[in-house]
Design a protein that fits this description.
This protein is of the alpha+beta class and about 450 residues long. About 45% of the residues lie in helices and about 10% in strands. A five-stranded mixed sheet has the order 2-1-3-11-6. Helix 3 (about 55-70) packs across helix 16. About 50% of the residues are buried. This is Extracellular solute-binding protein.
Length: about 450
């Protein structure tokens, strides 16, 4: 399945999880941001993004550029495709210079957009978002990661980015294996565990996983969300209250994770695997159940040709990992901000939003009924359900810069037989240290 390896190389949520550690390289480079007084010629739009060339979003942005060129015939678009790492590692330095692009794709989160906004390197788009109606097209839950406060923490009242698409974690089922082994597709956590037990009794390890990448942490956080409410998510992600890492939510998560490891629902040998290895477990029909992001959806649609599969929410939880996607930002030192706004407006248009959906991603400003692709409609409908029900609970590493590495080490420790209480202490230490520094 080498084709999947290449298609999945630029994972959206992998980006989100890598952001905290990568931004450590940016902070020393970014001094005070400019006030955005640079003068442009009004004839050039410099645009950066880091989407892979054959991906759904790259196709959408290509179409948006073509539309921009049609509506702005006197403007030259200078597009540069960057790597995610190039942008992450050098954003602060570049945005604080006269080489800043007019508009660029950038990662969401406190350690990325929030940090640069706090340093004055990004344009406040609050008034523009209201004027152009972007704030009405994007729900409150999807816009949390586009809005920041004076501390650079998400959920504030000022817009510094405009997301065009959504992302979330869902459950993928091999319908043929469920049918072959006479296993009913689960509707709640009890029936989910019953299905896992039945597969294991048939000699099949039921759950795909990857301990050396984001999936292991996704599983742990998802189990915590099964016991969580809105207030708990706000306390953990937005620091609205104290978080007890030995409270019922986290305790349930680590104990259930360990129990599933002990029962063989997870394979402990998966501790060294990467995300692409996990998807290959599902595609090769070695594992009948995979929990993963919608960023896998397009590749699975193309690469699975020999069995029927379906998607659904994780049983037993009204919440999942997810948010609005990465977004367009306008650097403070951008020379042609009005042109940048015009381009963003095109990406929010019905035409481009519909294209995002047809290509297998999740548009924020187009509903499932506007998309003809039946599988894509199913995906968009699932996202809409979470979005409308305050079901998007972000990602576990977001609250603290560098937290991804902590999560990776902690979940690997758990998979290697570490004690649940020790694992929770590992997760608590950097979080509580940062929380104390905010007081």
């Amino acid at each position: 399945m080498t084709k999947m390896r290449f298609r999945a190389a630029r994972l959206t949520t992998r980006r989100a999880l890598l952001a905290a550690s990568a931004m450590a390289l940016v902070a020393p480079l970014a001094a005070c941001g400019g006030s955005g007084t640079a003068e442009g010629d009004g004839k050039t739009l410099r645009l950066w993004h880091y989407e892979q060339q054959d991906g759904a979003l790259s196709k959408a942005w290509d179409a948006a550029i073509a539309e921009f060129e049609k509506t702005h015939p006197d403007v030259k678009v200078v597009f540069e495709r960057k790597t995610f790492e190039q942008v992450q590692q050098n954003a602060g330095m570049i945005l604080n210079s006269d080489k800043a692009p007019d508009v660029m794709e950038y990662n969401k989160g406190n350690a990325t957009t929030g940090l640069l906004a706090k340093q004055g390197l990004l344009t406040d788009l609050t008034a523009v978002a209201k004027e152009r109606g972007w704030d009405k097209k994007i729900s409150d839950s999807a816009s949390v990661t586009a809005r920041y406060d004076a501390k650079g923490e998400m959920g504030g009242d000022k817009w510094y980015g405009i997301p065009n698409y959504g992302e979330f974690v869902l459950t993928y089922y091999n319908d043929d294996l469920f049918k072959k082994h006479n296993v009913a597709q689960p509707t709640d956590l009890k029936s989910f565990e019953a299905a896992l037990a039945k597969f294991k009794a048939a000699g099949i390890t039921p759950l795909a996983n990857a301990g050396n990448d984001h999936p292991a942490g996704h599983w742990l956080y998802l189990l915590a969300l099964a016991e969580a409410n809105d207030a708990w998510v706000d306390d953990y992600q937005l620091y609205k209250g104290k978080v007890d890492f030995h409270g019922p939510e986290w305790t349930y998560a680590v104990n259930t994770y360990k129990d599933w490891l002990d029962k063989g629902y997870f394979d402990k040998k998966d501790v060294g695997l990467k995300g692409n290895d996990m998807t290959e477990q599902f595609v090769s029909q070695k594992r009948p159940v995979m929990v993963g992001g919608n960023w896998w959806f397009g590749s699975l649609t193309t690469d699975i040709t020999d069995f029927k599969w379906s998607i659904g929410p994780f049983p037993g939880s009204e919440k999942t990992l997810g948010s609005g996607g990465n977004h367009w930002v306008i650097p403070s030192k951008a020379k042609n901000k009005k042109l940048a706004e015009d381009f963003i407006d095109i990406t929010m248009s019905e035409k481009i939003q519909k294209l995002i959906g047809e290509e297998g991603n999740v548009p924020l400003a187009a509903g499932p009924d506007s998309v003809t692709n039946p599988r894509s409609r199913e995906l968009i409908k699932a996202f809409s359900t979470y979005q409308e029900g305050s079901g998007l609970a972000f990602y576990p590493d977001w609250p603290v810069a560098g937290y991804y590495d902590t999560w990776l080490a902690a979940t690997q420790n758990l998979m290697n037989g570490g004690k649940p209480d020790v694992v929770l202490d590992e997760l608590a230490a950097p979080y509580e240290k940062y929380a104390a520094s905010r007081r």
